[in-house]
Amino acid sequence: MRNPHRTQKIAFAFLFLAILLILVPVGLIVFVIIQKGLPGISWQFLSDMPRQGMRAGGIFPAIIGTIYLASGAILFSLPIGLLAAIYLSEYAKDNLLTRIIKLAIVNLAGVPSVVFGLFGLSLFVVFFKFGASILAGAMTLGILVLPVIITASRTALESVPQSFREVSLSLGASKWQTIRHIVLPNAIPGILTGVVLEIGRAAGETAPILFTVAAFYLPQLPESVFDQTMALPYHLYVISTQVPNVAEKIRYGTAFVLLAIVLSMNLIAVIMRNKFRKLKKW
To answer: What is the tens place of the pLDDT at every residue in 152-183?
Structure first.
């Protein structure tokens, strides 16, 4: 006869081992980046323009460009993704067409980023004639993160108990009033979870911005959304593979700054999510 306590201990041991297999490599990567990148961090490195073909100076334009692109991607994708999620969860009927749309959204999340880059090049840069610009890059990144935002938002909306909707409707509220004042406030923590996941992806992608916005060497700040800009992921790729004799501390320092920006954005979103989660009454 099997001992349930022994089986439980074995299961817990395998789960702990799985956690270690994930955390140890991630921890080592972060440790190496911090160890080798921290010596290269200085106020001059963070605030100066690049010089001497990116072998000297700072990475200020790349930092600003990364923030512009990640923020623009979320500003573009969040309203569209949220409206699509509301329609799919609250208004659309459960039929063959709706199921195909939901399946297509899930499949889009697995499309390689380079494909989205080529799509952005064809649509925004060439067809709409935005050129290689912040607008084209941000919209391409927005489409890249859109499937996950739709899926996470729809899941969050559907997790709100149906009884909340029934009580609101029984008190005379319209369907939209119920969604706006009852469903959405209770779904915000789940929606922010999707945003948290995709902020990091938008800030760290290289292939989409390579086709639509990233400049190889641009020691100045963009003046409008139709200008090109440098970005940390592409800048890191260039100085690591294309520019010879770049000091190791500059490469790892750039990686450290990119990691810090992504973690900072995620931290802000997590704090906001936890704040809204405390307001939930269920």
So the answer is: 999 999 988 888 888 988 888 889 999 998 89
**pTM for the complete prediction?**
0.87
Query: Are 218 and 230 in contact, with CB atoms under 8 Å apart?
Result: yes
Reported for 264-270, long-range contacts at CB under 8 A and 24+ positions apart, including other chains, are 265/70, 265/199, 265/200, 265/203, 266/196, 266/199, 266/200, 269/192, 269/195, 269/196, 269/199, 270/196
d(CA 105, CA 194): 14
In the chain, the domains with their CATH numbers are 35-42+58-278 (1.10.3720.10)
Chain CA centroid to CA 11, Å: 33
Tokens representing 150 are 């739709």
Backbone dihedral angles phi then psi of residue 245, each to the nearest 5 degrees: 60, 35
Q: Which residue has the tokens 């989660």?
A: 277
CA distances from 43 to 36, 40, 54, 60, 272 (A): 17, 10, 17, 10, 29
Q: Quickly list DSSP for 48-109.
A: SPEETTTTEE--HHHHHHHHHHHHHHHHHHHHHHHHHHHIIIIIS-SSHHHHHHHHHHHHHT
Angle subtended by helix axes 134-159 and 60-86, to nearest 10: 40
CA distance 204 to 221: 20
For range 211-240, the mean pLDDT: 88
Using only C-alpha atoms, the chain has a radius of gyration, in whole angstroms, of 23
Which residue in the block uniquely carries the two structure tokens 């993704």?
81
CA–CA separation, 60 vs 34, rounded Å? 19
256 φ/ψ angles, rounded to the nearest 5 degrees: -65, -45
- Predicted confidence at residue 153, as pLDDT, reads 92
